[in-house]
Amino acid sequence: MSSAQARASVAAPGAAPRNSYDFRLVLSRKLYDRAAGTANSPSMSQLAPGSSVQVNPIDLERIGAAEGSNVRVSNSHSSVVLPVVASVAVPRGTALVPFNQPGADARELVRHGDSVTDVRIESI
Predict the structure, then answer these.
(1) What's the total number of domains in the chain?
(2) Is residue 9 part of a domain?
(3) pLDDT at 7 over 60
């Protein structure tokens, strides 16, 4: 087998197909979070903004929740309750959650073997 044939026989990994969940979860970093340096500093500990889920304003309208209200973010193995925030910086179909913030921990939704995490967001 030539090297070109060998390369052609190996498929590149693609994104997992969407399932019945509406949003692709993206965890992001913030400058201030629950890291030891921030959490143990009286002057810095209040700078961590706290957990929330950010979605596009069009998606927020589709969810039927008011900005700042709590929503349930869930998938097949876990769920967390977070306040929802509208942001035009978030693409439609995406749920952006800052990582390692005070409040609910979205890491419960992520499994180490999954290439992507899709979630459902429900008004509660």
Answers:
(1) 1
(2) no
(3) no
